[in-house]
Amino acid sequence: MSDAEVVNFKNKVTTESKALQSLSANFTQTKHISFLNKPIISTGKLYLKTDEKLRWEYVAPTKYTVVFKNKKLLVNNQGKQSTVDLAANKQFEKLSKLISGSINGNLFDDNEFVVSYLQTNADYLIKLTPKTKDLAKYIKEIELYFNKKDQLVKQSKMIEPNNDYTIITFSDKKINQPIHDSVFNL
Amino acid sequence: MIRFLIYSLCLVSFFSCKSYQPVADFKAKRQVIENTYFADLEQEYIYAVTISAFKNNVSGLLVIKAIDNTKHRILLATEFGNTLLDLTITPNGYIKNYAMADLDRKIILNVLANDFFVLLNKKWESDAFYSIKDKSIYKVKIKNKKYFLSYSKGILNTIEYVNRKKKLEIHFENVFQDSAQQIKLKHYNLDLSIDLVRI
After folding, report:
1. Count of the separate structural domains present in chain A
2. Which residue of A38, A43, A98, B63 pairs with B75 in a disulfide if CB–CB is 3.0 to 4.6 A?
3. Minimal Cα distance from A80: which residue of B?
């Protein structure tokens, strides 16, 4: 993207994010591992309210739900509930930051990543490369694909240091439809 | 949690919570017995995993693949897809392909690599066995440690490591088409257990 296109893209995302009150979507996650012939596929649902409530729910092949609200992390792992899961926390905080950051545009000014702006016919492609060695231990690169029509992220690709990668694709996005607060209970 | 795990592993004491009564009347006989649950070179074994260590839980996915007759590749990842650990388990130890920085401690890798070796190892050389009706127990030694493998109707049910008292037990459940759908691995001398459910 040219400088002008980057400014235009950022403005569009900021404008859309200000109008966004809630978002729900289905997602499909495929993890590609170098020594496996087939990827591992998980599916689930995402619910987001802009007052910092997020539900990330795996439905298959196993049930696993994390809810982030009131600065707390709630986990339901196949019926077993916990309020704070230290192992998941780090991952989830990154995920939460990625999702909310890609919606409100904060991610593009993030101190932790070098941001590159590209585009295809249908999408804006934003590449994030960690600035710090610490983060680079976990992530080699993140690619975010934004639909040019609604400026919402439709796919993310997280590439790990060993080049294994995970793609998350969102579908059936519903914007500003009512989401009852009980959805953010476990 | 990881730091606490390291301290706790360092402080492992010798007491055990359960006495083990070895079965009498073992008959001396040299023979090779097999654990075929992870032996198929064509299969990719994927389990939902929960590791409980010192009152903390880590959950995610465990991928197991046999590379040849003696080696396996195992990969532990979070539900979100991030790889935590990627090891090649060999009869002589392990090769570290990747370990997340917080897990990259020899003491943790050694314990996990040994657990996975016992779980995945295909051929065991037994020097004695005990048999009654349709149950058989085989005594084997791996790296100078004494293990017992229990079979019922030819199906491997448990692997136990015993050193005066039981230290480790691996229990296989719901065996279907030569694959254990559920596996419970429990240490008796430290607060560490691994539960696996096939997906």
Report:
1. 1
2. B63
3. B57
Are A37 and B44 within 8 A, CB to CB?
Answer: yes
Residue B198 pLDDT greater than 50, yes or no: yes
Three-state SS for B3?
A: helix
Q: Say what the pTM is.
A: 0.83
Cβ–Cβ gap B97/A162 under 8 Å: yes
User: A158 lies in a domain?
Assistant: yes
Q: Does any domain span residue B4?
A: no
Task: Choose among B105, B107, B121: nearest CA to B190.
Answer: B107
Give domain status of residue B91, yes or no.
yes
Tell me the nearest-neighbour CA distance from B199 into chain A, angstroms.
6
Q: A90, A164, A168: which to substitute to probe chain B, counting the most B Cβ within 10 Å?
A: A164
Give the domain CATH number at A162. Answer: 2.50.20.10
How much is the pLDDT for A160? 92
Chain B nearest-CA distance from A4, in A, is 35
Domain residues for the domain of B173 are 16-198
Contact (CB, 8 A) for B131 and B155: no
Say whether A64 and B1 touch across the interface (CB within 8 A): no
Q: Compute mean pLDDT per 10 residues along chain A, 186 residues long, and list them.
A: 86 80 93 93 92 88 87 80 60 62 63 87 91 85 88 88 92 92 89
Domain count for chain B, please give it.
1
B103 domain residue, yes or no: yes
Name B92's Cβ contacts closer than 8 Å, sequence gap at least 6: none
β-partners of residue B166 are B162
Residue B126 maps to which CATH number? 2.50.20
Query: Which residues of B fall below an 8 Å CB-CB distance to A?
Result: 1, 44, 46, 48, 50, 56-59, 61, 63, 65, 73, 75, 77-83, 86, 97-98, 100-101, 197, 199
Rounded distance, CA A124 to CA A166, Å? Answer: 19
